[in-house]
Amino acid sequence: HLPRPHDPFTDLVPAAGIGAVGLGAVAAAVLLLPRVVSGVSGAAAAPTIPPLPSGVAFVSELAGQAEVQQPGGSYLPIQPGALVAAGAGVRLNSIGPESYLRLGLADKSILYVGPDSQIELSAIGGGASGEPTRVALDFGLVLIATDADSPAEAWVTSPGGVMARVAGSQMGASWEAVRGEFGVDCFDPSCEVVFPAGITMNLLAGQHVTISLGGDVIGPEPIPLERYAFGVSAGGLAGLSGTPAGGSSGTQIGAPTR
Predict the structure, then answer these.
(1) What average pLDDT does the structure give for the chain?
(2) DSSP string spanning 62-116?
(3) Which of 29, 152, 166, 211 has CB 3.0 to 4.6 Å from 171, enough for a Cys bridge?
(4) CB–CB of 143/105 below 8 Å?
């Protein structure tokens, strides 16, 4: 079921620091956003992440329900095609086991928020400051693919303080709140886990580790690929085949392939 047509400019979600984003640049980016032409884009299409102002994410695909929260505000429904400005306290979540969303970031990275998951999107890389993309994983699962042809890098922080870093590669991360476990999956070619004391651990392609709240490490082990079965294996990034978690209701707008 497609949402009614809307003007994507009205979906620009303000955040701390949005004043630094020129309205002219935002308007120009909006004009380049793809239009919704069907429930799922045709296989012949060669979609890309549209040009975006620094610090902005584009909701390129959504299945089920998802919400966005501004600092101090309430959670509000988010629609495909929306623009979200990153900032401290800006949160996105997917509601239910068949919901997920995909974001195209201004630094040309791709960020999936998996089913029943919530993140804080505090920063998006690619700006003049050289700041990396920063995601705090409140619960659930994310998968991020940084652009191998750019200096883009991303950090995912767990509630336990352990961080995972990826640059020019693909990485998944999960937080199991009941068990207090942070999982990191390195797809290709390498990733890095950083502990609160500054100790680092490198992961190679295909490796998964689990870190407990006490700092115990289990692994490396093979990546549990079944957790990435949503969205046709996270748009193929996870290397699986299957049906999108949202089924035919999964709405895709300009899948951010590069």
Answers:
(1) 76
(2) EEEEEEEE-TTS-EEE--TT-EEE--TT-EEEEEEEEEEEEEEETTS-EEEE-TT
(3) 166
(4) no
Residue 199 neighbours by CB under 8 Å, 6+ apart: none
Query: Of 63, 33, 49, whose CA–CA distance to 256 is shortest?
Result: 49
Q: Distance (Å, rounded) from C-alpha 151 to C-alpha 147?
A: 8
**Pick from 45, 47, 183, 60: nearest CA to 110:** 60
- Report pTM: 0.75
**Could you state, in chain order, the average pLDDT of each consecutive group of 10 residues for the chain (258 residues)?**
39 40 37 31 43 89 93 91 93 95 90 96 79 94 85 90 91 94 90 91 93 91 90 68 36 40
Separation between Cα atoms, residue 83 and residue 14, nearest integer Å = 9
pLDDT in tens, 113-140: 999 999 999 999 876 567 899 999 999 9
The SS3 assignment for 211 reads strand
What pLDDT digit, counting tens, does each position of 85-106 carry?
999 999 999 999 999 999 999 8
Other residues' Cβ atoms within 10 Å of the Cβ of residue 171: 26
**Nearest by Cα to 144 from 104, 178, 117:** 104
